[in-house]
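Ticket reopened. Same input as before:
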Amino acid sequence: MTKSSAKSKTAPVRIGRSSVTGAYILAPYPKKGGTVDPEKIRSVVEAVVAGRKA
Amino acid sequence: MPGEVSAPTDVFINCPFDRDYAPQFEALIFGVMACGFRPRSARELDDGGQTRIEKLYGIIEECRYGVHDLSRTQLDAVNDLPRFNMPLELGLFLGAKRFGGDAHQTKRALILDVEPYRYQRFISDLSGMDIADHGGDVGRTLIRLRDWLVNVSRRRLSGGAVLVASYERFLAEKAQTALGLGLDPEQIPYVDFEQIATRWLAAERG
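Engineering reply: fixed in the latest deploy. New output:
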């Protein structure tokens, strides 16, 4: 693996901005593991948060 | 040969993994993410092709920041011995900063313990370094973390009380989210927890 490809794999990716701290929220460092599809996690979390705000 | 620090966003979380510490561990992960950084932990290591210490070398090499909690330096009930992994990994981190060349001189460490001066009785060579006490309290742990990250990164972030209130809202909805995903709220796998926390922080906006 070249250094540039390794860097692109692990470079920080912004997925939003926190209204709490004002900081950009970064996607987790890419790693193996996890039992649930990240897209399913996103949809369930957004539904829970939207339910509270409604 | 000195390595490269991959990104000034990565924070090595060097802390106990026992059940009693889990609330503080999860709070540290959440707090690091809420402040705009990425947590790195031995929990992410599942590659059987490397020894554990080699994996830790890699994480420490790639992290500019390190949070080291020495609060488990105490005799355990089973073996009557203290846990030394956290002091060992703190030593590796400080060694990388001291001997790792220019790329590692910017490393910064937050050292936590339950009491402010207890460390002087078991690791007195750290005398003169700032040790932050959390008293085993999740809220105080979050505030210590946030204040330190602001100090070392010079970022502008909301105050600690705002972060603690946000974490309390997250905890209430974490359980609901876990159940919606078919997970046990008390035993969420680490990688899934990271995804839940980041997505919650992103969705909380607006």
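Helices of chain A lie at 3-10, 38-53. Residues 21 and 38 of chain A are 24 Å apart (CA to CA). Please confirm and we'll close it.
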